[in-house]
Each structure stands twice: as C-alpha cells, then as structure tokens.
Amino acid sequence: MKKCLIVGGGLAGLSSAVSLAKQNVNVYLIEASPKFGGRTYSFVDKKSGDEIDNGQHLLLGCYYETLEFIKSIGATNLFNFQHKLELNFVTRDKIKHQLKATDLPYPFGLFFGLLNYEALSIFDKIKIIFIFAQLPFLQSEKYLNHSVEDWLIEQGQSRNCIKSFWEIIAVGALNSKLK
Asked: For position 57, what pLDDT does the model report?
C-alpha cells in the first residue's frame, strides 16, 4: 500500500487526505495546532459569549472544490446555506449595517441589496456597481503587480467604500487583507 505524509490540517490538507484515502493510500496527517481546519474555525468570546469566526466567513457557491469536500465527508447538513446573501456588519463604533439581497435572481437581488446598504454613499454604491459590471471584461494579467487595494483606489473607490465593503468582503471570503 502506498503511503503519503501530509503536513498541515487546513482545508487543503484535509481535502487531500480524504482524496488519497479514497484511493487506498495510507495517509499520515500532521498538524501543529491542536485543531484541524487551518484558518477556518470559530471560538467563543469569553467576555460576550458570542461565537466569533476566525476564518472564512463566506462560503461562496463558486467554491466548487470546497463544497465538494464538505459533501464528500458527509458534513453538508452541518452548514446553513443562504439562498440569498444576508450579511450583518458592526463598525468599531458599534453601528450596525446590513447588506441583504432581495428575492430577485442574481445579480439583480444583490444590486438592490447594495442600493439599500446604508454604510455607503450613493456615489460609492454606483462605483461598486461599475466595478461588478466591468469584472467579466477585466484583463487580470495587466494587474499582476498590483495589490487589490491599489486596483480599487485606481478604480476610484473611496476609503470608506474600501473599509466598509471591499475589505469586509476580502476578509470574509478570502481570509486575506487587500494589500
């Protein structure tokens, strides 16, 4: 029987281990942390008692391989999949905002949800919509040496828009900063 050592029990390591085990490979998985999942975990805040997500807050429908992994380990029933986007945000000043798509089909539901998102000015909302409209035509190789933040500034996104929308989306979906 073939053997394989996998270093790291994040989603990629776990997914690899499951895939190899299904092919009758004897898998050894080592992880330095006392838990598996890498950056994807939550914890209970001792002060508030709230459950805080550390890792990916957004599991998007375009994450085909991640969704397939969840299905392959029989964990689909442990997830609460939203049929329309609904995100709650709290600023450092404790001001609450909600980005909630309407019942219209994508992308129209998201469009109208964005228009109702109170954290942004109407000008910021229009500029975000403009970015979404141009994404299918974007020549990504042109921006290989740019950070996402640099690109957003180049596209005329305001600091508030970057802080109140783009940064939240980047951290939530990618667990990564824009720089």
From this structure: 63
Averaged over 30-38, what is the pLDDT?
92
Domain ranges of the chain: 3-78, 86-174
Residues 6+ apart with CB under 8 A from 31: 8, 9, 13
For 3-78, CATH gives 3.40.50.720
What 135-138 contacts at long range (C-beta under 8 Å, 24+ apart), as own/partner pairs, is: none
Nearest Cα to 30, choosing from 17, 43, 40, 42? 17
Q: Is the pLDDT of residue 56 over 70?
A: no
Query: H-helix or E-strand containing 42?
Result: strand 42-44
pLDDT in tens, 59-84: 777 888 989 999 999 999 988 888 88
pTM of the model: 0.68
| Count of beta carbons in the 10 Å neighbourhood of residue 179 | 9
* Closest C-alpha to 160, from 101, 111, 96, 91: 91
Question: Where does residue 56 rank: exposed (0-12), middle (13-18), buried (19+ CB within 10 A)?
Answer: buried
Of 164, 163, 161, residue with least CA distance to 87: 164
pLDDT of residue 167: 86
Q: The dihedral of CA 21, 27, 30, 34: what is its sign? A: positive
